[in-house]
């Protein structure tokens, strides 16, 4: 299965979870954190990331603040109070989906 298939259904949960663990992050930082945490197995493209960030922001789960760092404009994202609740809800829903898929495939967890 490709990264695209894995990330498609879980991208928002991944973003929200990363922002739960770190106060704020900018887009490139998120892509690098995903690579780091998955030992370079999953690659999050800008084409997938930024629409997801914008959707989460428009839904009120993220706030963005723009900052100039080393003459570059960075847009930092952080969770709103609603985003913190949504992060927990999405993580639980995703874990339950994985549990059900594991059960259907009769795979024993390690």
Automatic annotation (TrEMBL):
One Pfam family this sequence matches: PadR
InterPro entries reported in the protein's UniProt record: Metal_resp_DNA-bind_regulator (IPR052509), Tscrpt_reg_PadR_N (IPR005149), WH-like_DNA-bd_sf (IPR036388), WH_DNA-bd_sf (IPR036390)
Superkingdom of this protein's organism: Bacteria
Domain Transcription regulator PadR N-terminal: 15-88
Alphabetical list of PANTHER family matching this protein: PADR-FAMILY TRANSCRIPTIONAL REGULATOR, TRANSCRIPTIONAL REGULATOR RV3488
UniProt-recorded name of the protein: Helix-turn-helix transcriptional regulator
Species assigned in the record: Shiella aurantiaca
